[in-house]
Amino acid sequence: MPGSKFSDPFSGYSGRTTSGENSLEIDIAISIDTMRFSRNWSQKELAKKLGTSQSAISRLESGWSTPSIAFLKKVATVFDKTLRVSFHEKPQIPREGF
Fold first, then answer.
1. What is the pLDDT of residues 36-72, one digit of tens each?
2. Is 10 inside any structural domain?
3. Is 9 within a domain?
4. Is the pLDDT assigned to residue 1 strictly greater than 60?
5. Is 92 part of any domain?
6. Is the separation of the CB atoms in 4 and 33 below 8 Å?
7. Of 95 and 38, more confident
8. How many domains does one find in the chain?
């Protein structure tokens, strides 16, 4: 994502991938990381603004945490953003032989 300190912060990271079951956590992680860096805030500064710990922000930005909607609303408020959730159709996987 443009503006992030990483071109792909999760490439080569065996714990999570950018596709499959953890893609939402990775999308959230990259978004928060990008917004935090755009403000030049440390994880500790963001944690203080959100009333949480630096280690919680670290887990969140690494994709190892699944935040609640209430927490994401707090994040949106801190960054002067709105939180939008949308549902999309699952991509169809072609089946061989059919």
1. 999 999 999 999 999 999 999 999 999 998 999 999 9
2. no
3. no
4. no
5. no
6. yes
7. 38
8. 1
Query: Could you tell me which residues come within 8 angstroms of residue 53 by beta carbon, excluding any fewer than 6 positions away?
Result: 47
Which residues form the domain of 41?
A: 23-78
- Which residues are CB-neighbours of 14 under 8 A, at least 6 positions away? none
pLDDT > 90 in the chain, percent? 58
Of 83, 79, 85, 96, the residue nearest 37 (C-alpha): 79
Q: Is 7 part of a structural domain of the chain? A: no
Interatomic CA distance for residues 64 and 10, integer angstroms: 12
43/1 Cα distance (integer angstroms): 19
CATH of the domain at 29: 1.10.260.40
Distance, CA of 50 to CA of 72 (rounded, Å)? 10
- Amino acid 3: pLDDT: 44
Q: Is residue 52 a contact partner of residue 60, using CB atoms and an 8 Å limit?
A: no
- Average pLDDT taken over every residue of the chain: 82
What is the C-alpha to C-alpha distance for residues 11 and 53, in angstroms, rounded to an integer? 26
